[in-house]
Amino acid sequence: MLVTIQKWGNSQGIRIPKKILDNVKLKENERVDIQEINGEIVIKKITKEYSSLDELFESYKGEYKCEEYDFGEDVGLEKI
């Protein structure tokens, strides 16, 4: 099915025909994952939503250490 990329604010977008949305069981305002893989745009239905950050990262086994970051001197009326 051919569609046209159109300007949408500062971005561009396409309209996905209802028949395709019905076939993949996607509804209006449902969140999807969009990625570029090997030069192709891939849109995937999100099968699981997380209710908290703890749930999202419960299987994370990385070695991340939280560190402070210096943004430099205060500018204008800001005070950190």
Outline:
This protein is an alpha+beta fold. Helix content is 12%, strand content 22%. It has helices at 18-23, 53-56, and strands at residues 6-8, 11-13, 32-37, 40-45.
* Average of per-residue pLDDT values: 87
Q: How are the strands of the biggest sheet laid out side by side? A: 1-2
Biggest sheet character:
2 strands, antiparallel
- Per CATH, what is the topology of the domain at 6-56? Pemi-like Protein 1, Chain: D
What sequence of helices (H) and strands (E) makes up the elements?
EEHEEH
CATH class of the domain at 6-56: Mainly Beta
Distance between the termini: 54 Å
Summarize the amount of helix as a percent range: 10-25%
Radius of gyration: 20 Å
Shape: extended
Quickly give the CATH architecture of the domain at 6-56: Ribbon
User: Which strand-content bin applies to the residues?
Assistant: 15-25%
Taking pLDDT < 50 over at least 5 consecutive residues as the criterion, the unreliable ranges are none
Please work out how many helical segments DSSP would assign: 2
What's the β-strand tally? 4
Secondary-structure blueprint of this entry?
Elements: E1 6-8, E2 11-13, H1 18-23, E3 32-37, E4 40-45, H2 53-56
Antiparallel strand pairs: 1-2, 3-4
Structure description:
The relative contact order is 0.09. This protein has a domain of 51 residues: Pemi-like Protein 1, Chain: D (Ribbon). The protein is extended. The chain is of the alpha+beta class. It is 12% helix and 22% strand. Strands 1-2 form a two-stranded antiparallel ribbon. Strand 1 and strand 2 form a beta hairpin.
